Amino acid sequence: MGLLEVAGLRAGYGDGPDVLSDVHLDVRSGEVVALLGASGSGKSTLLRCIAGLHPLRSGDVTLDGRDLRRVSVEQRGIGLVFQDHALFPHHDVTGNVAFGPRMQGLDRAETAARVARALADVGLGHLAHRAIDELSGGEQQRVALARALATRPRLLLLDEPYGSLDRPLRERLVDELPGLVRGEDIGALLVTHDQQEALRAADRVAVMVAGTVRQLDTPERLWADPVDAEVAAFLGVGVLLDAEMHGGVASGAFGALTLPPPLRTSSAAGGDGPARLLLPRRALRAIAAPGGPDAAGDRAAAGATLTATLVEVRFAGERHRIDLVLGDGTRLTLLSDDVSGLPSPGAAVTLAVDVDALRVFPPGQ
Amino acid sequence: MSRGGRTGGRGRGAALAVGPLVFLALFFAWPLTLVLSRGLGVDGALLAPLRDVLTDPYLQQVARFTLGQALASTLLTLLVGMPVAAVLSTLDFRGRRVIEAATIVPFVLPTVVVGTAFVALLGRLAPVVDLRQTTLAILLAHVFFNVSVVVRTVGGLWRHLDAAPVLAARTLGATRLRAFLHVTLPRLRPAIGAAAAVVFLFTFTSFGVVLILGGPGRSTLEVEIHRATSQLLDLRTAAALSVLQLLAVVATLGVYDRTRRRHAARPLARAALSLRPAAGPRDRMAIAGMLGLLMLVQGLPLLALLERSLRVGDGWGLAHFRSLGAPTREAVMSVAPAVAVRNSLLFALAATLIAMVVGTSAALAAVGGSRAGRLMDGALMLPLGTSAVTLGLGLLLAFRTGAFAGRGAILLVPLAQALVAVPFVVRTMLPVLRGIDRRLREAAATLGAAPRRVWREIDLPIVSRAGLVAAGFAFAVTVGEFGATIFVARASNPTVPVAIHRALGLPGAVNLGRAMALSVLLALITGATVLLIDRIRVGAVGRF
Question: Which of A252, B161, B348, B454 is least buried, going by the fewest C-beta atoms within 10 A?
């Protein structure tokens, strides 16, 4: 049983259409779940619904098994870290962090202890009496986090909290989050549009597309098995090709690939007819020119292959970036450690395809 | 949840709007309607009063003079204000903040004080060059007043301009002057336009300064309205002149609003202050030149006023200040100037209270987003655009008889002053109320604060600072208010500005000395109030 359970949630603005529809989501104790989606996919609205700042049209939200629908925002025991922090300008650091404990009616000593602990947790003990506008962006973010933690919430919601910070700082703060959450034994839901951020911090990732959570899984499973073409496209797992399915063979302007038996019968493929074929990057390996000396041997070892045209090879730091164009004109970029044996730009290249990693989706997505 | 809260807020907003709307209807709309209907001749031959006014050669000359002096004053103010703005918004040096704060003082000084200061200065200069009762005197007094409008408006934009385009122009071969003309000036144009419109508006409706410094042939519409009312008892002509004046004001406000909107549309690099530390002889000369200019146009008249108030016969002393306690001997109906000081303080306090209640509830209503609130936002600016003399005339027309006649008339003074002050209160409170980030309230709620507590913990502390500033402004404006007050104040209950005006009209060195002493007192009161709130503002509210 999860700490936070969201089921069948629907919400919108005014009399407008649903911005969120049939959202299902759960967060467990000690876990960071990243809510990943493009801007406008409804991430922030979902967070505001859970916090109690936005009304639901229908659906359930429970925390520790307690139905939150009739609980007002100030009594939910959920900490929210805002985009751009929303720190109180008329209080100093301590005043901001002490705000929650004060609202909970704690006495001075207890409040001071909470503040000290929360500031220590985020490494800001030395700035307790600074004015807010004297803090750097990273310090403000930490104060916002400390302020939310000081109420001892069961669940922490973070709405793109690192958006305004530069990358090295953002990465450091993101890396600290899982330890903090596990240390307090709470759950955290982190809204972000940045995949790297989601991968660094999250135990599981929920992908939001067009107002609903399409898939909630560990990062490994998400990348290996995206549930539909849109999730695959959003994650950038690989390229999506228009294909024709016939007797277990996917063919198109890109060439033809014979699919392994489990894929042929998967329900997503929907039998023979048009389909979308996901060609994950990690299933591909550029091996050599088709007519090259090693090509015959490599091709036999590789099993299924496609032919592409090499556009450019560039050193991209640590690895090389290989830009290719498939037969149907689809552009494709691979990363590779070894680019020896590749022909010069403009020549044809053989791609070895791990057919077990392919996925087939219904057409039109 | 939030939906219920929002509807509740809207209901409360509409309720808050009722008070201010009633106040406006009773003490602004109705009096103004009376002025309009009289001026337009609604009761008799339609437009006849306007026609009479427009065909009167003397009044035609007044209208021409009003327009001409306003245009000349605006131009002269820009010529003086721009170099000051240039130095204050590009160079950082010791004392910059103090000078900046000081430039606001002349702007808030009561018109009567400024008029008196120039009387003192021109009297001192008379042996060398006699500028008494000249148009130039009026123009100089208008420059004294309005330089800070240019400095604040243009300088405010200037210091937030990104310095990079100017540097780019310099690397492309532009001289300092050409970079200024082709890069900086075009970007300042909206602010210059807005400042010019405001200065034009103020000088076009100038009353106290012209009343005191102007002589025969140098009368503005505003002064003429007063003269027609109080000397000729010709309310019809006064009302028709008010209508003319209103039309000009509305046209100017239209221009101002257009430039202001364009101004607002420009994105500003708010954080990027283009101030650089002053260094080298060129910068020092610029600063010295700026200080010299300010000293000449603003410092000198004030010094002359101070000097004149302390001059007793051939020596120096506080005799004029001491004499404020005694009634004027030369006048028939006389009260001691000290009574006027007491009156002024009491009236101003009452007016401030009224303006705060009306203005704050109006601002709260406007920020609530209800329809009544939005209506309020615009409606409350109208008294600002209507000249004080027109307001005074309207109140006189509306309340000559009835509840405010006789003993009740004394209530009209703070009401008239409050009308003038309400727009200042709203303009000070509204941006702060609007500026309270919705997410601050949400953050407080997620941290466990119930709605009432959110108001107490978030809105109240932020708003109360703004309230302090607004009250200070209201007090400074009302204590020196002249145009509306002179219409409604009874001879037995003058305020300080009215008493100064009266003393200036009386013969004898003693009366002149008293006028000077009273002016110094009034200048000290308003100056201190404004400097005090400027400190609060920079310290706290300015941050939001």
Answer: A252
Q: Are residues B127 and B185 in the same domain?
A: yes
Residue in chain B nearest A51 by alpha carbon: B446
Which of A77-86, B160-169, B284-293 has the weakest average pLDDT? B160-169
Total domains in the fold of chain A: 2
Residues B241 and B374 placed together within one structural domain of the fold: no
Alpha-carbon gap, residue B184 to B175, rounded angstroms: 12
Beta-sheet strand order (sheet of A58-63)? A18-27, A4-12, A58-63, A66-67
Q: Which of B255, B287, B319 is the last residue of a domain?
A: B319
Q: In angstroms, rounded to a whole number, what is the distance separating the alpha carbons of residues B341 and B497?
A: 9
Residues A299 and A211 in one domain: no
Q: What is the pLDDT of residues A320-343, one digit of tens each?
A: 999 999 988 889 999 888 888 888
A54/B443 Cβ within 8 A? no
Nearest-by-CA chain B residue for A75? B448
DSSP B263-289: HHHS---SS----EE--HHHHHHHHHH
**What residues in A contact B442, CB-CB < 8 Å?**
51, 53, 73, 80, 82, 86
Nearest to B440 among A55, A86, A148 (CB): A86
* CA atoms of B109 and B116, how far apart (whole Å): 11
Q: How far is A197 from chain B (nearest CA, A)?
A: 24
Q: Determine how β-strand A273-280 pairs with β-strand A359-361.
A: antiparallel
Beta sheet of A348-353, edge-to-edge order: A284-288, A348-353, A305-315, A320-326, A331-336
Cα nearest neighbour of B451 on chain A:
A74
User: How many domains, in total, are found in chain B?
Assistant: 2
Report residue B420: phi and psi, to 5°. -70, -35
The residue length of chain A stands at 365
Kindly tell me if the per-residue pLDDT of B401 is higher than 60.
yes
Q: A74 and B447 in contact by Cβ < 8 A?
A: yes
Say if residue A26's pLDDT is above 90: yes
Residue B188 structural domain = 47-319
Cβ of B448 within 8 Å of Cβ of A100? The answer is: yes
Q: Are strands A359-361 and B91-92 parallel, antiparallel or unpaired?
A: unpaired
User: Is some CB atom of chain A closer than 8 A to the CB atom of B270?
Assistant: no
Taking an 8 Å cut-off on Cβ atoms, the answer to whether B445 and A82 are in contact is no
Nearest neighbour of A103 by CB, restricted to B3, B437, B448 = B448
* Averaged pLDDT for residues B530-543: 60
DSSP letter at B510 equals: H
A54 interface with B at CB cutoff 8 Å: yes
